[in-house]
Specification:
alpha+beta; globular; 355 residues; Capsanthin/capsorubin synthase, chromoplastic-like; seven-stranded mixed beta sheet; D-Amino Acid Oxidase, Chain A, domain 2; 3 domains; single chain; Lycopene_cyclase_b/e; intramolecular oxidoreductase activity; FAD/NAD-bd_sf; 12 strands; three-stranded antiparallel beta sheet; binds flavin-adenine dinucleotide; FAD/NAD(P)-binding domain
Length: 355
C-alpha cells in the first residue's frame, strides 16, 4: 500500500506496492549474465569515439584502441559522445535522501509514502515558505521499521534546477516538525536526474542505452525498470543485424537499432510524457496538489500506466480527457491557462515525428 499526502487534510491510499532495489545485487546479477554470455571486459575510461562507414573505434585513457561494428554508450546522462540536433532544455529532478536510524517517525510501517506534499513544517520558516510555494518539494519516505527509514526531500521537476542546499534546508525543517530525530545516517544520496527536453539525434552512429538514451520518464525521473524491460528487445535487434546471416552494417544498422529503441509510437508517447513535465513545471504547490489529487482519482489503469510508461498514444489521450473530467474547477483553470503553450509545442513535435 502506498500513501500520498495531498495536504494537511487530504490523504490518498493507493493499491500499489513499492520495493527498494539493491544496487549491489542488481549489478552482480547483470555482471553474472554478462560473464555467462561470454562478455569480455576492459576496464578504462572512454576518451574518444570515432566512426567510419562500417566500423567505429574507441580510444581509452590507458591508450587501448578497440574496434567494433556497433558501439553502445551506457555512460549515463552526461555522455559527451551522444549527438543532439535540437537545443537541450531538460528539466531536473533534484533530491536529498538519507537512509537513517531515528528515535521514531510518524509514518505507517506497512505503507510507502510516495509523496508528502504537506507544508505545515514551514509555518515557522517563512524564509522557506515563499520559494516552497512556487517551487514545491515533497517528502518520499520508505519506513523499514520504527527506527529505520529512508527519507528523501524531492523536487519532482524544476528548470532552472532548485538548489541542493535549499532542498536540504527544507528537509531539515520537515524532519524537525515531524519530530524525527536522526541518530545515525547509514547512507546519504544526492539525486540529480535530467528529464524531458528534445530527444537525441536519431539515428546516429553511436547506439545508446540507459540514462543517455532519452528513456528516462520525463514526468517522474524513473528509468531503471523501463530500461531493464526494453533491453532484451534492443539486444535482439542488435543480434539480428550483426548475426552472420544478415551482415547489416553502417547506416542501415544504425537505423534498425535506433528504430528498435525509439519506434515512432514510442517517440510520440515520449512527447506526451514531456508535455506532462512541462505542465508540472508551470504549477505552484497548490496547483501541484490539485493536479495529483485529480491524477490519483483516475482509473488506476491510467495512472499505473502513466507512471510506468505503458500507455499507448490513444490511452494517453483518454487519460487527458479523464483527468480534465476528474479535475477540480481550479485545476481545470490551471490546465486551460498554463498548458496551451506546452500543448502547442507537443502537437508540433507529434506532427514532426509522424511526418
Ligand atoms: C539518488 C538517486 C535515486 C534514484 N532513484 C531512482 C528510482 O527510484 N527509480 C529509477 O528508475 N531511477 C532512479 N534514479 C535514476 C537512476 O539511478 C538513473 O537513471 C540510472 O542510474 C542511470 O543509469 P545508467 O546506467 O544509464 O547511468 P549511470 O548509473 O550513471 O552509469 C554510467 C556508468 O558509466 C560510467 N562512465 C561514465 N563515463 C564513462 C566513460 N567515459 N568511460 C567509461 N565509463 C564511463 C560511469 O562511471 C558509470 O559507472 C535515481 C538516481 C539517483 C542519483
Amino acid at each position: 500500500m502506498t500513501t500520498v499526502f495531498i495536504d494537511e487534510r487530504k490523504t490518498k491510499y493507493l493499491d500499489r506496492p513499492y520495493g527498494r532495489v539493491s544496487r549491489k545485487k542488481l549489478k552482480s546479477k547483470l555482471l553474472e549474465g554478462c560473464i555467462s554470455g561470454g562478455v569480455r571486459f576492459h576496464e578504462a575510461k572512454v576518451w574518444e569515439i570515432q566512426h567510419e562507414e562500417f566500423e567505429s573505434s574507441i580510444t581509452c585513457d590507458d591508450g587501448t584502441q578497440l574496434k567494433a561494428n556497433l558501439i553502445v554508450d551506457a555512460s549515463g546522462f552526461s555522455s559527451p559522445f551522444i549527438e543532439y540536433d535540437k537545443p537541450r532544455n531538460h528539466g531536473y529532478q533534484i533530491a536529498h535522501g538519507i537512509l537513517a536510524e531515528v528515535d521514531s517517525h510518524p509514518y505507517d510501517l506497512d505503507k510507502m509514502v510516495l509523496m508528502d506534499w504537506r507544508d505545515s513544517h514551514l509555518g515557522n520558516e517563512p524564509y522557506l515558505r515563499e520559494s516552497s510555494s512556487r517551487f514545491p518539494t515533497f517528502m518520499y519516505a520508505m519506513p523499514f521499521s520504527s527506527n529505520l527509514i529512508f527519507l528523501e526531500e524531492t523536487s519532482l521537476v524544476s528548470r532552472p534546477m532548485l538548489s541542493y542546499s535549499e532542498v536540504k534546508r527544507r528537509m531539515v525543517a520537515r524532519l524537525r516538525h515531524l519530530g524525527i530525530r536522526v541518530t545515525r545516517v547509514l547512507e546519504e544520496e544526492k539525486c540529480l536526474i535530467p528529464m524531458g527536453g528534445p530527444l537525441l539525434k536519431i539515428p546516429q552512429s553511436l547506439m545508446a542505452v540507459g540514462g543517455t538514451s532519452g528513456i528516462v520518464h520525463p514526468s517522474t525521473g524513473y528509468m531503471v525498470a523501463r530500461t531493464l524491460g526494453l533491453a532484451p528487445a534492443l539486444a535482439a535487434v542488435i543480434a539480428e543485424c550483426l548475426g552472420s546471416a544478415r551482415m547489416i552494417r553502417g547506416r542501415p544498422l544504425h537505423q534498425r537499432v535506433w528504430a528498435g529503441l525509439w519506434p515512432v509510437e514510442r517517440r510520440c508517447t515520449r512527447e506526451f510524457y514531456a508535455f506532462g513535465m512541462e505542465t508540472l513545471l508551470k504549477l505552484d504547490l497548490n496547483g501541484t496538489r490539485r493536479f495529483f489529487d485529480a491524477f490519483f482519482n483516475l482509473n488506476p489503469y491510467y495512472w499505473h500506466g502513466f507512471l510506468s510508461s505503458r500507455l499507448s498514444l490513444g490511452e494517453l489521450a483518454m487519460l487527458s480527457v479523464s483527468l480534465f473530467g476528474h479535475a477540480s474547477n481550479l485545476s481545470r483553470l490551471d490546465i486551460l491557462t498554463k498548458c496551451p503553450v506546452p500543448l502547442v509545442k507537443m502537437v508540433g513535435s507529434l506532427a514532426l515525428e509522424t511526418i
